[in-house]
Amino acid sequence: MTTASVLPTKHVSASVADGALVLSGQLLIDTVDQLYEKFAEGVERIDVGYLSQMDTAGAWFLVDYQMRAARNGALLEITGATQAQTQLMETVARNMPPDDRPTHKALTLADRLEAFGQKVTRGWHMTVELISFLGQVIITLGGILRHPSRLRMTSVVHHCQEIGVSAVPIVALMAFLIGVVLAFQGSAQLRQFGAEVFVVDLIAISILRELGILLTAIIVAGRSGSAFTAAIGSMKMREEIDAMRTLGLDPVTILVVPRVLALMLMLPALGFIADISGLIGGALMSWIELGVSPAVFQTRLVSNTDVWHFSVGMIKAPFFALIIGIIGCYQGLKVGGNAESLGRLTSASVVLSIFMVIVVDAMFSIFFAVVGV
């Protein structure tokens, strides 16, 4: 008669005695999970002298528990281990993955001042580099004026289409909606004083002097400025710009100047389109909301709006274009050899361009107010 052999059941037990956690039995990969709910808090020592067996999984469990206790500020001692068990735990401890979790420490006033100083220093260095890059572009433009054959007209025309013609729908729609909003909100406020007719002056001055060109520049910064950084940055990642320098070609002449020139040509045109669309949207909403007919709107617009309001917006346009082009190309040339830097600098290009456009617009507003325009 044949009898089936029964394998002994592997088990491990834990008990607390005199502030120590006493383990007995077999601490193996099959029994480690039995201890997770039995480990008590507040023990100062783990006694493994009663263990009959311990494998790598058991050693890892003890070392990991000891390390977690150390991270919480407790010193947990493991006693009673044989020489073989001690060597096994030391080997496991040497091969434990590093703790990559950031350590959170309270920032002192000195730490905050240091971080602020580092940001100021980085901002100053970037400002100096941008001014230097602007000077390099201006010198290159001066050389092209002396030798017009160096200008790549095909590239300029291509970028004019990408920057200007392709952006007309979004710029026109944006300006139209801004005009509608200005007329609607202005009428709601002016109606309280019986001055609805002045909504024409509000729309005309706001759009022609400020909002038309400013919002157009912001859209172009987000659309074309980011495209400049991404295109030049991709060429930098593929080492095409290094190849240009090796062949004796100037990347500023080939890549930067056509983009900057196209932007300076197209942004005033886009600003003009935005002004017309904004006035049309404002006139339409004034007609619907206030009953101001297009003829009355046109008459009041022509009689009460100074041509300088339009001129102020057009004067700003080339400066905004130069800012967007210089920053977009500069950030593209700073891209490193990985996609992370490309995405980071593309985002930085858009943010910095919009910020500088708003700053320069504020400076122009103060200047024109001082000179009485």
Describe the structure.
- The protein has 373 residues and is an alpha/beta fold.
- The protein folds into 2 domains: 12-94, STAS domain (Transcription Regulator spoIIAA), CATH 3.30.750.24; 129-371, no CATH class.
- Helices cover 69% and strands 7% of the residues.
- It has helices spanning 56-71, 83-94, 109-146, 153-163, 168-190, 199-237, 240-246, 251-290, 294-304, 307-333, 339-371; strands at residues 12-17, 20-27, 45-54, 77-79.
- Strands 1-2-3-4 form a 4-stranded mixed β-sheet, covered by helices on one side.
- A hairpin with a 2-residue loop joins strand 1 (12-17) and strand 2 (20-27).
- Helix 1 (56-71) crosses helix 2 (83-94), helix 6 (199-237) packs parallel to helix 10 and helix 8 (251-290) packs across helix 10 (307-333).
- It is elongated, with a radius of gyration of 36 Å.
- It starts with 11 loop residues before the first strand and ends with a helix.
- The model is unreliable at 1-8 (pLDDT under 50).
Helix-strand blueprint:
Layout: E1 12-17, E2 20-27, E3 45-54, H1 56-71, E4 77-79, H2 83-94, H3 109-146, H4 153-163, H5 168-190, H6 199-237, H7 240-246, H8 251-290, H9 294-304, H10 307-333, H11 339-371
Parallel strand pairs: 2-3, 3-4
Antiparallel strand pairs: 1-2
